[in-house]
Amino acid sequence: MRYLLDTNMCIYWFKGKNGIDIKMQNLDIDDIAVSAVTIGELLYGAYNSASVDKNLSRVRVF
Predict the structure, then answer these.
(1) 38 contacts 45 by C-beta, under 8 angstroms
(2) Disulfide check for 12: which of 2, 17, 21, 35 has CB 3.0–4.6 Å away?
(3) What's the pLDDT at 15?
(4) d(CA 7, CA 13)
(5) Which pTM was predicted?
C-alpha cells in the first residue's frame, strides 16, 4: 500500500507526534509519497517560522 502524506502528517512526523514517526519507520521508503504542493507548504512554513534555519534543514533532509 502506498501513502501520500499531506502537510499535517509530515509535520507530525517531524515532531514525532501521534506515533507517526514509528509508523513511517515500518514502511518501505518506496511506499511513501509527498506532493509538490505539500513540499511548497512545508517550505512556506519553514521560511515563516521562528526557527527558519532549523526548519529548512528538516525539510531539506526530508
Answers:
(1) no
(2) 17
(3) 86
(4) 10
(5) 0.83
Query: Within 13 A of 45's CA, how many CA atoms are on the CB side?
Result: 16
Q: How many CA atoms lie within 13 A of 58 on its CB side?
A: 19
Site of grid cell 499531506: 6
- Cα angle 48, 35, 53 (rounded to 5 degrees) comes to 30
| Cell numbers at 28, concatenated | 518501505
* Residues 58 and 46: beta-carbon distance below 8 Å: yes
Q: Which amino acid is at 54?
A: K
Taking the C-alpha atoms of residue 58 and residue 26, their distance in angstroms, rounded to an integer, is: 20
